[in-house]
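can u do me a favor
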């Protein structure tokens, strides 16, 4: 299975100087990953990973392999700055398959037929009258903070209903003065960022942080990224 890479090199003198400024001013590297499906949250997107620049030095490889788990959160009223909790978390779920969420909080295989090969289905088997839940996918990502399954998308799912969720390889990275946890829902890009899409032909992006603006961009001569201005809608950038 393919592993995708987002690489920074803070060993050069100019990038060391930028890193020192980011660390002194308490900046954090924030990552977002796209998905699509019915009843996706309209208010924003969960922060996939959040790594303080104080934890970063040298050559940094943030990587992930497209393997997923399904989570369920009991809260249905999700606003910006809500931090989604993975109260129930399945085992690894292959693309093209489905799970059923049981009333006791467990998962069983199956429940939906005809799930597309690039998607994961989830049926909510809780009885009518029980509250709507928030569900989504957690993707395995390796950062300087460790290797973890972290949530990157969120959907509302009523009892006795099902949803089909499709992870997308659209990525947004931002260097911002925000101390966010993984799962914290954000609606707008907090600082100038970079958006890019992994594919079978582009599996690594070599990145740098520009001085002064702290815009993330590609290293000259490497695969290009798209500059994203502060205040842009995260949903519209990565979830389509």
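np, heres the sequence
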């Amino acid at each position: 299975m393919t592993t995708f890479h987002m690489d920074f090199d803070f060993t050069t003198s100019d990038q060391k100087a930028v890193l020192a400024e980011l660390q002194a001013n308490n900046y954090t590297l924030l990552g977002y990953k796209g998905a699509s499906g019915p009843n996706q949250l309209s208010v924003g997107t969960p922060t996939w990973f959040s790594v303080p620049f104080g934890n970063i030095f040298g050559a940094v490889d943030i990587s992930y392999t497209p393997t997923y788990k399904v989570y369920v959160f009991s809260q249905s009223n999700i606003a910006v700055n809500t931090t989604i909790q993975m109260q129930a978390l399945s085992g690894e779920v292959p693309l093209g398959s489905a799970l059923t969420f049981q009333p006791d909080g467990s998962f069983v295989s199956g429940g939906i037929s005809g799930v597309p090969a690039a998607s994961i289905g989830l049926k909510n088997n809780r009885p009518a009258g029980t509250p709507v839940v928030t569900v989504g996918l957690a993707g395995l990502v390796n950062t300087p903070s460790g290797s973890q399954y972290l949530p990157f998308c969120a959907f509302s799912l009523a009892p006795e209903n099902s949803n089909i969720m499709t992870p997308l390889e659209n990525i947004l990275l931002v260097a911002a003065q925000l101390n966010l946890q993984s799962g914290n829902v954000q609606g707008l890009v907090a600082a100038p960022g970079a958006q890019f899409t992994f594919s079978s032909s582009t599996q690594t992006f070599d990145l740098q942080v520009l001085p002064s603006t702290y815009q993330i961009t590609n290293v000259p001569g490497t695969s290009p990224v798209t500059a994203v201005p502060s205040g842009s809608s995260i949903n519209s950038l990565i979830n389509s």
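Residues 4-238 form one domain. hope that helps!!
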